[in-house]
Each structure stands twice: as structure tokens, then as C-alpha cells.
Amino acid sequence: MFLPLTGLALLVFAIALGFIKKINVGLVAIACAFILALLGGIPTATVFAGFPTKLFLTILGTMYFFCLLQENKTLELLSQKIVSPFRDHPFWIPIVIFVVSYILSAAGPGAISVQAVMVLFAMSLATQVHIPAELLAAMAVFGSAGGTASPIALAGIIVTDLTANMNLPGAPLKVFYAVSAVHVVAGILFYLGLGGYKIKLDRSLDLGRLPSFNRNQKLSLVAGIFLFILVIGLRLDIGLTCFVLALGLALAGAADATKAFTLLPWNVLLLICGVNVLMNVISATGGIKLFAAALAQLMTPGTASALMAATAGCMSWFSSAHGVVLPALIPTVNAIAAQVGPGTNPVELIAAIVAAANIGGLGPMTTGGSLLMAAYVQSTHPDASAQHAMFLRQFFLSMLSVLVVVVFAFLGGFVPFCR
User: Fold this and answer.
1) What distance in Å separates the CA atoms of residue 47 and residue 296, rounded to the nearest whole number?
2) Which helix (H) or strand (E) holds 47?
3) Which range scores top for mean pLDDT: 71-85, 164-178, 200-214?
4) In 3D, which of 185, 177, 167 has the Cα closest to residue 348?
5) 3-class DSSP string for 8-21
6) N or C: which end of the chain has fewer CB within 10 A?
7) How far apart are CA 130 and CA 30, in angstroms?
8) CA–CA separation, 137 vs 98, rounded Å?
9) Tell me, what's the pLDDT at 207?
10) Domain boundaries, the chain
11) Burial code of 18-29, b = ≥16 C-beta within 10 A, e = fewer?
């Protein structure tokens, strides 16, 4: 009992220390994994075996390819061109931002890369039209968070990797459909609640004279089409395919490869890999089974997915959804489902985890929320009190978004998608 409890305590310690001291949780997790291995007499080889090499290369290749498209402004111009036709009907703009964010995210970049573009773009639009900044930000966050569960996007890749040996056939696609559904519901509720249907333009949007795609952007779009064909049509590995396409774009001079390299979310990569290392050692000590048993004691088949959603959502406010929440909670679902009893679907629990962890991205301490705060300060130059008020509004909206997932799960919303 000592080692499993110690492992779980070290996981909590790593997350708390990273949050309080602003240290990458992945770094702390690797150190904690070694300490736990020493305490338990576990071979160092077990620590190294926990590094998710395939997942690392998959995410690195995917992110680098789309960083090239971000660096040469292909994603930004594509987003503007899609939104432009609706400048005379502004009530469509939040919906379009949601749809564009969703499609771009599901196509491969995932929530982090898309939010880096769409949240900033949404805030820019908010300064030009009479639209609450929170509404456009929510649409960008919800759209990108819903799309990131795609099997070829960031969260979907993580789900595929973590469920590979869990005997859950078809889980990645089922989770994608379920996560997409709850984000659409959240988007509709926020659109109505924040008055998206009655917005009006303050002045004409400067979207009518957008430039044409230049040579580099056209090459990037062609590479994106090839990515779809090779990954979806020919079933090639998404990460390795992205490395080849990225090399082609770099050799063609379609983007600055060095600048794109600096755009890579290295902190997130380190988070994901570091926590995976620690979770592997915790699993070896029986910590995952202990945590699953504790959660199972609180659950019934009717409340299991809702409680998992609440747990994942709360964790996401203070730690990375992809780097901490998914690797920490997804490995527990089979054990929880077995202990809660018949009628508990582990795929449904995974969908609840992924949905709640990603939808909390409005929180001011998350990646998307931080981008929103930075864009808000940059565009409006608020005083300290206004910044504090914005911080509180973001956190409140993030709580509401997680509550949507919890209620959705409690009402059985995930069930039709996860059978």
C-alpha cells in the first residue's frame, strides 16, 4: 500500500509544484518517477521504458508540419477567407469561427496550434464588431477542443496510443464523435447565452480585400491535401507522413523552417512525455489500480461518466489536458468500469475525460485561456482591475463549460456514441 500511495502522492506533488512554481510538470514528473523507482526497487529500465517514443514522434511531426503553415500565415489567411463572406451578417461569425476552428483542429493541428491562430483572430474580430470577447473566444476554444479528438489530431493521437492495449476496439473514433457532440452542445448554449444571435457590426470589417494565397501558401495547401490523402486514404502514419511533407515544404522554401521550429509547443511535448514516464512507474507499483478503486467507490453506472468528467475538468484548470489529465486518467478506465459494475462503459468514461479536459480551455491558466488574456490585454490595454475582472469571467465561463460536459454525461449524452 505504501508504494501505490507514494506514487499517487508524487503525481499530485508534480502537478502542484509545477503550478505553484511555474515549472514544467513533465520535468518534475521525470524526477518523481526516478525517486519512486528508487523507493520501490524498480529497475531504471522501467523508467526509460515509460518514455512514449512513438507518441513523441507522432506529435512532433504533426505539430511541426502545422507550425510551418502557421509561420507562413497559411492558416491565418485561410481562416480570414472563410469568415469574410459573412461580414454583412455578423450573427454568423461566431458560428463560422466555431466551425473553422473545429475543421482546422480535426484536420491535424489539434487545439493548441489552432487556438494560437483562432483565439487571436477572434479577439481581433471582437475589437471590430460589437461582439463580447468571451463569445468569440468560447467559439474558438470549443471548436478547436472538439476537433482535437480527431484520430489524426493531438488528443485523438493520445487516445489512440493510450487505448492501443486496452482491448477497446473503435475507441478513438467513438470518442471523437462523442467529444464533438458535447462541444457542439456547449457552443450552442454559449452562443444563445452570450447573445450571438443579436450581434451587430459597429463598423465594416476589414475582410473584403484579402490577398490571394501566395506561392508558399499554395504549396502548403497542396501539402495539406496530400496529408489527408496519405493518412486517411492510404492509412499511413500521421507523424512520419508529416515529417516527410514538412521536409518537402522546407526544401521548397515554402516556410521558414527555423522560425517554425521555435513555434513548436515544446513545453506540452515535455509535459506529455514526462507524465507518461511517471505514470508508467506508478502503474508498476499498483498506483493506478489503487486510484481506480478509490474512484469506483464513489461511482454507480449512472454517475461514473459524470464524475470522471468533473475530475478531468477540475484537473484541466491547473494542469495540461494533453500532458497530464489524459495520461493520468485514461489508463484507469478499464479498472474503474470493472469495479463499478455492469453497464459502465470504459469508452464512455474516456469520452467524458477527453471532453471535460479540453473544454476547460477557457480557463485563464490554460493555453487557450492564456492566449485569450494576452490578446485581450494587447488589444484593449485594460487597467489592473479590468484585467482581474476578465480573469474571473474566464474562470467562471470555464466552470460553466465543464458543467455542460458533466450534465451531458449524467443525462447519458455520451451513450449513443460509445456503444
Assistant:
1) 28
2) helix 44-49
3) 164-178
4) 177
5) HHHHHHHHHHHHHH
6) N
7) 47
8) 9
9) 57
10) 2-49+88-206+265-418
11) beeeeebbbbbb
Crossing angle of helices 171-193 and 93-106, rounded to 10° = 160
In a 13 Å sphere around the CA of 188, the CA atoms on its Cβ side amount to 6
Cell of 71: 509561420
The widest CA-to-CA distance across the chain, in whole angstroms, is 68
**What's phi and psi for 251, nearest 5 deg?**
-65, -30
* 3 state SS of 200: strand
Q: Who's near 308: CB < 8 A, 6+ residues apart?
A: 295, 329, 333, 336, 349, 352, 353, 356, 409
**Which residues have a Cβ under 8 Å from the Cβ of 230 and sit 6 or more positions away?**
236, 241
Residue 256 pLDDT > 90: yes
Map grid coordinates 504533426 to a residue: 62
Determine the Cα–Cα distance for residues 175 and 153; give it in Å rounded to an integer. Answer: 13
What is the length of the chain? Answer: 419
Cell of residue 306, nine digits: 459524470
pLDDT of residue 24 exceeding 60: yes
CA distance 238 to 255: 20
233-to-64, 227, 230, 238 alpha-carbon distances in Å: 22, 9, 6, 12
Terminal Cα-to-Cα distance of the chain (whole angstroms): 35
Angle subtended by helix axes 266-284 and 287-298, to nearest 10: 90
Q: Where are the alpha helices (DSSP H) in 229-332?
A: 238-251, 257-263, 266-284, 287-298, 304-316, 326-329
pLDDT digits (tens, 9 = 90+) for 109-126: 777 777 767 776 777 667
